[in-house]
Structures are given as structure tokens and as C-alpha cells.
Request: fold
Amino acid sequence: MNQERFDYRTGILGSPLEVGRDEWNALLAQQAQPTPFLRHEFLAALHETQCAVADTGWAPRFVTLTDDRTNRLVAAAPVYLKGHSYGEYVFDWAWADAYKRNGLEYYPKLLCAVPFTPVQGTRLLAVDDNARRHLAATLVAFAEQAEVSSLHVLFPTPQEAQTFADVGMMLREGVQFHWINAGYRDFDDFLATLEQKKRKNIRAERRKVHEAGVTFRRVRGEDVTDAEWRFFNRCYRQTYREHFSSPYLNLDFFRRIGETMPENLLLVIAEREGKPIASSLVAYQRGAASEAGTASPSGTLYGRYWGALEHVPCLHFETAYYQPLEFCIEEKLATFEGGAQGEHKMARGFLPTATHSAHWLAHPAFADAVARFLSSETETIHAYVDELREHNPFRN
Reply:
């Protein structure tokens, strides 16, 4: 047996600021599927602007493994002690309700995830597979000792999901809709691959926005002014207001990531008669091929937030989908992940993609019940994806 796995020192940190930015980001850079949302700058911004802190039900409990011999950080995971299930996008409200009906407490629970960010990516930052397996086992051991009801890992990579299954966690599947860049020359080249009806509808939607006198500016993160951040924040808050909900993020957060990680951000601003009326914020991660300047698409664009202060028919689709798609094609990004849910995205060239989560429940009877539920749910999800694929929007 490799003795190295027993040489790790475990840390439970009450803030992402307790681990060095360079150490954390160096680990992230070694992963097969890094995302901008796992950058230290993003997690620190959530904490420093009071968006993901104990007072909002997101108490950091970041888990780290340090090599005792070299004092080197070899593994880390973003973990939070949660007092609710808001901002997660993998829904366990029914589980919490079942606990309550049986006189048991579901909260607090432990959550390994990026707050408010339903994006699949690395959750176990590690220098090698040995450290990764040990970190997964450490998370379960932490949950067992912390007197919590459960541990949940949201949107890990498929490989990590298997690692969590190997340490006894139950797996759950979900569905998102992702757009794949097949090396398109431009937007019309992409449209040519769609069924005629889909192609016609998209052109009609874009024409309505154009005929309404709306124009667009795509502003890279490093060029976004404070006035533009303030305008975007108004749009973002308006979206939540229209849904009778409260926003998770604030202007300070957007300003902070604009300062610390602008190379990962793009702001789309819609204007009419010189006045901004809507905007969307997307994030992107360049891949190795993109950075090397090769022809093959590489990297990912992530749809995040949008809002409008005026109603214009089809403005949402142009601001949050078609403008980012054009950016993807121009920048040779391979994938556009449109965010959580949304069958309507298929008509715009997005295809169903499986997502994963892993779950551990301390109560044996509830763990058995959830395992049975997940088995049935997985069959339903697979049937749903099969049905969706029968409605593929592409010609071939």
C-alpha cells in the first residue's frame, strides 16, 4: 500500500481567505476541467462581499489536505455548512420536508459546490489521483463527525462522481442544455445546420430585435466601466424582482470580480436610441487550443445572468443567447453552457447534457429511501433525455 496517502494533514477553514490565492489557483490549473468559478478570486469575492457567508446560510468550511513532509497544499474543496437549500440548483426540498414530517432536522447540511453556480467542473482540486481519493474520503469522514444530516456534492465532473461513488455516496443525474461549436465560420454557418423551421424562427427573432432599433455592444471584462456594472446590476435585480425573489449577489460582488478576474468576463449591453435597456453577463474559460491560437474550438462560455429595463419582443434571446453564440464562434470557444434547465434552448441549437451530483445521508432509513428514489429518478431522466434527443434541432 502507498504510505503517502497517510501523510496528509486535514484543514477545515472558516474562510476561503485562509488559503493562499496562488496555492489554490495552482491546484486549479492542474485539473482536467477547471472553471472560472473555482478560481480563488471568485470564491473570495463571494465571501468578502457577504454573498456566501454564515449570515446568508453559506458558512465556509473549506477542506484542505497538506503534505506533512513538504507543507505543500495537495488537495482542496469548496465546502459550506448550509442552513437552507437556496442557490443550489439540485433540489432536495422534498428530502428536507420528509425529515421535518418525521421530527428530524435536515439542516445544517454540508455542501461541496460553488454558490449560486450550476456549472459542472472540478470539485476535488488535487495534485494526483491519490490525493483526490483521499480528499473524497475526508469529506465523508468530516460529514460523519460534524453532526450534520447529509453531505452533497453538486456538479462534479463525471470522473469525480465515480470517485464519490467509490467512497459510498449516492449519485444523482440531471440535465442541462449545451451548445457545441462544430468549427462554425460565423453565425450563418451555424444556422445552416439547423432544421429549416428552427433556422427561420431564429432569424425572425433576431429581425424583431433589429427592427425595434436595438443595437448591441459586447464589452470585455477589462473594459467594463463602473457605470456599466451599475447598469448591469439594475438589470440583474430587475430579473429577480419580476420573479418575486431576492437576488443572491450584489453590486460589490460584480465590481470585485470585474477587478480581479476580468479576463473571464463578457458583458453584453443592449441599447436603443443610445440608451442602455438590457444586459447579460457571461463568463468564459479559454482552452489550451484557444490559447495556442490553433483552429480547433477550445474552451467554454458560461451563460450567467441577464435582465432588461424595457420590454422588447425576443430581446432575451438576442441578449443572452445569440450575442454570446456569436462571441463563441468568433473566439473559437468549443462549448456554450446555457445554465440550469430550459428545454426552449433546444430550438436554438442546444443539446441535452447529463449533469451529476453525489449525496450521503447520515440516517440509514432515509439513506435507503433516497437510494430507491434516485434509482427511479435516474430511469426517468434517461427516458427524458432519449425523448429530447428525438427532437434534435439539427438537419442531420
